[in-house]
């Protein structure tokens, strides 16, 4: 395999300071994936204490406040006496911890813990400082509550998943620490932390929020943005390999339509294709137009760019949100019951993200199909299935089958979850977002699309072998060398699964995305 200069990976902060401010996507990614440390700032402490003082006052005076001195959901009309306020909060966590399914991944769990701590630290939730401090301490100690992935309808917050998370704070539930599964009490003992006795409002504040949806959204969007850049690189490789025209990427064409994402994608493709010897070799060929998956690449990639831009705006706002209920406004002395926990903004955006990446994956599979042949326009060039000896060898034939199977699954997953609603809580929650379903689907779509793009990179690199000694555009040449650093040229049939796996890892790591 060839050696080449690796593109530089994105750098993330090594420390995240929570002080009531909006988090950035990089903050979340740093904590979730790079294990950045987290601290709590002085301003956040003051905000938390001010909101808590108001809750203490209202609870002591016996005011009727939802979730503080009343039951929850359809039981909000039931008054709770002062001597049962602590029991109420613990019962809330226990009763709501009814999730099922495989546990959330470590990175999603870490992101959830950070988002919950940051939301509580904005001073509108009414919890004590000790609650936020314990969350951060567990995060920094690499303790992960064991959270079943299914059970949230994304309406009154991600109730079941967050309840499993919050159980750890009272020494219950289960957690992973140093690769081992422990009870909540055991793991708190190991990291020298004392279980909390939750006070009025605290249990409710811990589980009323969109933190699972937003955790997956932030991670999936980052991967989707990297994948889009990588897909454009793979497309440029296929265009050069199949001797496609560069005329459709002319800046004048895209400026005349005016779509922002389209113009950005066209610019990226032009950069990847510049100074191509392959282009010069077929300027006078008889072919007039290319298939849409080459000719209309900026239009399709641009639509995906614009869709991801919409998602980025929605998810970024949520990184500055307080999404539990009721909300505490200490300066005015008000505690207001509303619906910031409803996941519809995220659910809709997550479904759009999934649909956009589905288009990206389907788009790539058609080029993979084209790379397989027959190449009637390419006399004496590339053979069927990109193997030097078709017939005796099957070459890359089955890689297109694999891509087709993945696209079929992705298309099924792309059906929007957010258009469905199954009422809950005896009709009190009569329209729910199903946003966590949207989130799980979006993440699964991105993961499968990464595999499809890896296959295109591998097949396009093989096609470029048949264009030698001509060199492709400078960006395509860099991408070709990055592929060859991981996957050798196919001379005769071999097991291709390891090759695909190597390239999937490179796609996930963002190795190809910075190429311009």
Q: What does the model show?
A:
The longest helix is centred in the middle third of the chain and has 31 residues, at 211-241. A hairpin with a 2-residue loop joins strand 6 (174-177) and strand 7. This protein has two domains: 15-209, Fumarase C, Chain B, domain 1; 216-321 and 355-508, Fumarase C, Chain A, domain 2, CATH 1.20.200.10. The two termini are 23 Å apart. It is elongated, with a radius of gyration of 26 Å. The protein has 19 helices and nine strands. It has helices spanning 25-34, 42-61, 85-96, 106-120, 129-140, 159-167, 184-190, 202-207, 211-241, 251-257, 260-273, 277-281, 292-295, 297-318, 344-372, 397-413, 435-465, 474-484, 497-508; strands spanning 15-18, 37-40, 100-103, 143-145, 148-150, 174-177, 180-183, 327-329, 334-336. The chain has a three-stranded antiparallel β-sheet with strand order 4-6-7. A two-stranded parallel sheet has the order 1-2. Helices cover 53% and strands 6% of the residues. With 516 residues, the protein is mainly α.
């Amino acid at each position: 395999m060839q050696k080449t200069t690796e593109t530089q990976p994105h750098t993330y902060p090594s420390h995240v300071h929570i002080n009531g401010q909006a988090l950035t996507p990089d903050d979340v990614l740093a904590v979730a994936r790079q294990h950045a440390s987290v601290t709590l700032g002085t301003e956040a402490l003051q905000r938390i204490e001010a909101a808590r003082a108001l809750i203490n006052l209202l609870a002591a005076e016996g005011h009727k406040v939802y979730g503080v001195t009343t039951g929850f959901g359809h039981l909000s009309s039931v008054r709770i006496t002062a001597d049962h306020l602590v029991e109420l909060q613990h019962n809330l966590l226990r009763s709501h911890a009814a999730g099922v399914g495989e546990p959330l991944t470590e990175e999603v769990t870490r992101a959830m813990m950070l988002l919950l701590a940051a939301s509580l630290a904005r001073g509108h939730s009414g919890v004590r400082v000790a609650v936020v401090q314990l969350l951060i301490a567990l995060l920094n100690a690499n303790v992960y509550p064991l959270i079943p992935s299914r059970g949230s309808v994304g309406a009154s917050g991600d109730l079941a998943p967050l309840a499993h998370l919050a159980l750890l704070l009272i020494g219950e539930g289960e957690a992973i620490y140093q690769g081992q599964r422990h009870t909540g009490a055991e793991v708190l003992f190991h990291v020298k932390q004392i279980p909390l006795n939750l006070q009025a409002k605290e249990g409710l504040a811990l589980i009323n929020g969109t933190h699972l949806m937003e955790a997956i959204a932030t991670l999936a969007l980052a991967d989707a943005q990297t994948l889009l850049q990588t897909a454009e690189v793979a497309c440029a490789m296929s265009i050069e390999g199949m001797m496609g025209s560069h005329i459709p990427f002319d800046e004048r064409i895209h400026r005349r339509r005016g779509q922002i994402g389209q113009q950005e994608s066209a610019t990226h493709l032009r950069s990847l294709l510049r100074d191509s010897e392959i282009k010069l070799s077929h300027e006078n060929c008889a072919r007039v137009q290319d298939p849409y998956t080459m000719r209309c690449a900026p239009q399709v990639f641009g639509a995906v760019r614009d869709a991801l831009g919409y998602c980025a705006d929605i998810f970024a706002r949520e990184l500055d949100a307080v999404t539990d209920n009721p909300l505490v406004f200490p300066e005015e002395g008000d505690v207001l019951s509303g619906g910031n926990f409803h996941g519809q903004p995220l659910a809709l955006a997550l479904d759009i993200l999934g649909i956009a990446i589905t288009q990206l994956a389907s788009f790539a599979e058609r080029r993979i199909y084209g790379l397989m042949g027959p190449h009637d326009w390419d006399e004496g060039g590339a053979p069927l299935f990109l193997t030097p000896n078709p017939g005796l060898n099957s070459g890359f034939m089955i890689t297109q089958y694999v891509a087709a199977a993945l696209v079929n699954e992705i298309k099924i997953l792309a059906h929007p979850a957010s258009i469905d609603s199954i009422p809950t809580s005896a009709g009190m929650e009569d329209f729910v977002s199903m946003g966590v379903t949207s989130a799980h689907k979006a993440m699964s779509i991105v993961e499968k699309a990464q595999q499809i793009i890896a296959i295109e990179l591998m097949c396009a690199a093989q096609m470029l072998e048949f264009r030698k000694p001509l060199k492709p555009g400078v960006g395509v040449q860099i991408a070709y060398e990055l592929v060859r650093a991981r996957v050798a040229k196919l001379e005769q049939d071999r097991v291709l699964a390891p090759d695909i796996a190597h390239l999937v890892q490179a796609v996930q790591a963002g190795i190809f995305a910075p190429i311009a």
